[in-house]
Amino acid sequence: MFMKKENVRIILCRIWSPGNVGSILRAMKNFGFTDIVSVNQMNFSEEEILTMCAGAKDHIKHLRYSEDLKKEVSDLSVVYAFTARKRRFYKSVSPEEMVNEISELPENTKIGIMFGNETNGLVNEETDFADKLVVIPTEKEYSSLNIASAVMLALYEISKRRISGQEQKEDLIDIEEKEELFSIIEKVIQTKLMEKSDNKNQIRENVRHIFRRMKLNKKEAGFVRSIFEIIDRKIKL
Which one has a higher pLDDT value, 51 or 227? Predict the structure, then answer.
C-alpha cells in the first residue's frame, strides 16, 4: 500500500503572509491532507487566513504554530525540503522523483515536506533537517514559485500516485532515533578514530550529512549501533 496521507506533514518555515497559509490550507483540503505546522511565522492574522481559505475554513483547526523546527521533525523518518536552488552536500530530486521514493517506503513512514519564506526560501539551518532537496523544474530566468502553488504541486504529485500490492516493509527509524544513533558514531569518530586528526570536525560533519540522509529501519539501525559500540570497546587508547 502507498503511504497514508495522515503521515504527511507540511512544514512552513518563517512564512510572512497569513494569506499564503490560508491558500495552503485550501490546497490541503482539496487533496485530503491535514497535518500542517507553521514554524516561526512572521505575521499573524486569522482574518487573512480565513479569507484565503474560502470554502476550506474548517481546515484551520488543523493548523499548528511552533517555534521549534527540531521538535517538529523529530518524529519524522524522512524530510524533503522544497527549494529554488541546489546546494552543496545535498542531493536534489524533482517532485516526481520524490514521490517515486515515497512509494518505496513502508506504509506507516512519517514524512515531512518543508517550505521556506516567500522571499529568501529556506536557510541552511532549516535544510540541515532535510534528507533531500526538491527542486521544481522552472525557467532559469524566473525560478521563484509562489509557496501556495509549490505546496499544491507537491500534494498533487503525492495524491495522484496510488500503489497497490506493495510488500510491507519494516518501519524506518525517525530523526530523533537517528540523532541518538549518530551520537554514538560521533563519539567513536571524535575519541577513537580521529582523535589526533586536524580535520576531525569537518570529517564528523561530512559523515553526519551522509548518515542523516540514509533511510534505516530499526534492524539496520541496531546493527550499525552494535558495530560502533564494538569499535568503541575494542580500540584502546
Answer: 51
